[in-house]
Design a protein that fits this description.
Helix content: 40-55%
Strand order of the largest sheet: 2-1-3-4-5-6
Oligomer: single chain
Structural class: alpha/beta
Order of helices and strands: EHEEHEHEHEHEHEHEHEHEHEHHH
Distance between the termini: 13 Å
Shape: globular
CATH superfamily of the largest domain: Glycogen Phosphorylase B
Number of domains: 2
Largest sheet: 6 strands, parallel
CATH topology of the largest domain: Rossmann fold
Number of helices: 13
CATH architecture of the largest domain: 3-Layer(aba) Sandwich
Number of strands: 12
Length: 320
């Protein structure tokens, strides 16, 4: 099977987790026996592909999908949309993407329920496939690799792009007197927000540049942290799943997506209650790792199983 991966054309101006996921999906599909290309100068003519997988419902993508639809190619949509935002301004654009898709892949049952409640979707279009993380995260990293590289022992880890809706600034301010260092790995899209975060940090916060996804140094950071932290307004990224596989204590924003994926294993903080964060971190560290959650993540979220599920659905639903 030959598959073309597409997304909206501005996506790689400020690449972040979504763009990393797109590249990784191409690799996972190829590892599972499909031939996957990302749309661009080096991709082939549309007629050579059996199916198109489109990533995101961001505006400007629907024009491309319309042309693909007119050419008679089946479309699989990975919306990467925050269905929990009931007042999203681009609802009509999202609906257009959903209309053009032949198969819509969501990550959780709660997202499926919200999509069905707030959008018009034909019966049989919606499927749920759990988010999948790179198989490298199932391998132990060299002991002490991250700590030795950065001169750290105990630390709280946050992986992800600095962004206002991710609430790193509030976390930095709330943890100003935390004795355990806070390490933030990731770049930024908004330099002004980055500068505000830098201005707020004390000696207990360290910003590290982007680290190669699924690299041994990142795996070491995940596997060695005292606790993993993520508190954005939306649901967590794949990094939280990677940290859960490492069996590390977790502190997350209270969110139905997180509850479905992680259950009661993390310490949850109510949205906006940053004054509770210090105590939540200490509770998580005291509670220790969750090996039951790690085994659950390994069984349901470690690639290539999610990609195999995707290919099976494409074969059974779109290639009859």
């Amino acid at each position: 099977m030959r598959i073309l991966l597409t997304t909206y054309h501005q996506a790689f101006l400020t690449p972040a987790g979504g763009e990393t996921e797109l590249h990784q999906l191409a690799e996972f599909l190829s590892d599972c026996g499909a031939r996957a290309d990302i749309y661009g100068p080096n991709s082939r003519r549309l007629s050579t592909y059996d199916v198109v997988i489109h990533f995101s419902t961001h505006g400007a993508g629907e024009g491309l999908l319309s042309d693909i639809k007119s050419a008679g190619k089946p479309i699989v949509l990975l919306p990467n949309f925050n269905f929990f935002d009931q007042h999203h301004q681009s609802k009509n654009i999202v609906q257009r993407h959903l209309d053009l898709a032949d198969l819509i892949v969501l990550r959780t049952q709660v997202e499926k329920s919200l999509c069905e409640a707030n959008f018009n979707v034909a019966d049989g279009k919606l499927v749920v496939i759990p988010p999948g993380i790179a198989p490298a995260f199932g391998k132990p990293a060299e002991e002490g690799l991250f700590q030795n590289a950065y001169g750290l022992q105990d630390y709280v880890l946050w992986v992800g792009q600095l962004a206002e809706h991710k609430r790193q600034l509030e976390a930095i301010e709330a943890l100003a007197d935390l004795e355990v260092p806070l390490v933030m790995i990731g770049g930024y899209a908004d330099k002004r927000y980055y500068e505000r975060c830098k201005a707020a940090v004390g000696d207990n916060v360290r910003f590290l540049p982007n680290v190669q996804p699924a690299s041994e140094i990142l795996r070491s950071a995940m596997q060695s942290c005292s606790a993993y932290l993520e508190l954005g307004d939306d649901f967590p990224g794949f990094s939280a799943i990677e940290a859960a596989l490492a069996g590390r204590p977790m502190v997350l924003n209270e969110h139905p997506w997180s509850r479905e994926i992680f259950g009661d294993a993390p310490v949850y903080v109510a949205p906006g209650r940053f004054e509770m964060l210090h105590a939540a971190i200490l509770d998580a560290i005291k509670g220790g790792a969750s090996q039951n959650l790690a085994e659950q993540i390994k069984a349901h979220h470690l690639q290539p199983n999610p990609t195999k599920q995707l290919l099976h659905l494409i074969t059974t639903k779109l290639q009859r």
